[in-house]
Amino acid sequence: MAASKLDEKLVLGIESTAHTFGVGIASSSGKILANVNYVYRPREGGIHPREAAQHHSRIAAKALREALEQAGVKPVDLDGIAFSIGPGMGPCLRVGATVARAIALRLGKPLIGVNHSVAHIEIGRLITGCKDPVVLYVAGGNTMITSYIDGRYRVLGETLDIAAGNCLDVFGIKAGIGPMPAPEEYARRGERFHSLPYRVKGMDVSFSGLLTAALKLLGEVRLEDLCLSITETVYSMLTETLERALAYAEKEEILLVGGLARSRRLMEMIEEMAKLHDAKVYAVPPEYAGDNGAMIAWTGVLQLIAGQTLRIEDSRVRPRFRLDEAEARWRMLGL
Amino acid sequence: MEDARSIEGGMMIGEKLEVIRIGAEAIISRLEWNGFKMVSKHRVPKPYRFPELDRWIRDRRTLHEARVITSLRRLGIPCPAILLMDRSEATLYLQLIEGVELKKVLDSLPAEEVERLANELGRMVGRMHRGGIAHGDLTTSNIMLDRMGNLYLIDFGLSAITDDLEELAVDIHLLDRSLESVHHRLRAAFMRSFLKGYATAAGMDFLQTLIEKVKEIRSRGRYVEERRKRH
Predict the structure, then answer these.
(1) According to a count of CB atoms within 10 Å of the terminal CB, is the N or C end of chain B lower?
(2) In terms of pTM, does the model score above 0.90?
(3) So what's the ipTM on this one?
């Protein structure tokens, strides 16, 4: 190994909070050396935790082997083993945790428990190069506005009931056009705007009343107009609360994380809002937007440097691990 | 509006001296009109919003804020008085409060003063809630502190005239979270005194019912992802 590589740390990270089993390898110089992800897709209906966990157990060895090959790294070269400790589904989390413990014990390397939500933010900071953003986290079932303040990512705002993506997905499915992005595509042909409940409470939002009202209008007004009204209302609520959070946290960057970050119209709105405040907008590219192993590996690197590792006996999974319960000590080190 | 006179046509009142706050939705400027100091609160159009939605939101919030302030003053809750309303420009002309946002000074105040203010705020919010008004954006940047140590509530664009427990509980939830995120070292002591003051004004039984509701709201928001994943 070259001399300059002596203090380069390598961490392997395992993601298994829900339907994705992923293995990533990241280095302390900020390189993603491997990112191998397998997604469990139920034949019908929603995700079943036990079946997803079985899928993860079946695929684990293969994913590990492929990640090591992709990175061209031998297990002995690793400096730490990270896994997503929560939040997520217990049975799925336990698969990742068990695999991580076994490797860490076998190699005698530190074990690192990573908060899944923190990892979404950290991979976003790494890939986009933003430093201290207000984050709009709109993944799967999640709608949250967060920012780093004094040692942790604090929750500035969130949904009081259902997630934004969920609201649009359910509307699309009940309207017979399917989940996102269908409602947004229909919205482009919309002309007339119909008023729907616009519920913003400080930096919090509420979508259930809006969804009910929109569903009632199905069949009574043009579907394209209804799609326009619901998407415009949802995105305006998100942009407005984000704007308020930006002012409140006194930050100059915005980072969009998660599936809805792919929406063109939402991105356009947020960019227009950011212009008013001279703020910069960053979005996580699709490759790293969904659940993935690389984000766990990279956050593992940060935690290893900051000394946030775990003893095996303290490594029980935490299905309800909140974002603001996780310390972010590397941020105090300026990382 | 009984207390506020409405003017039309977007005429400018007074002489604009300086912009004192550029908030997320409004620009607050200090004005002088015939030697009388006041502020204007102009809800600026948001280019990112669909035009009809934008007009509707700005008009509704301006009108609503005027209505709520009128009710609050009737309840004797300190907040800036309304002098004029210009709906066509989504602008309110309000009494000037010479003070600072609580957010800016809270962390530097002595512990006893923090407790006194928290208790006083609790009494104000308790009285407001019993009067059927939820603030809707109760954070430390929407509370003003003047030189005499008096508190004022400001910014009622998101408020609700309601006796729905949920709406009232959201106020407590928002205040607690604004402390948690920005003043987390003071949070426990502040909330303790706040709730004491609240109970004095609204009664212990009412407070307890409300706290149950706050817990329910918290459990709904925070764990949405996890609950969805589990079903």
Answers:
(1) C
(2) no
(3) 0.78
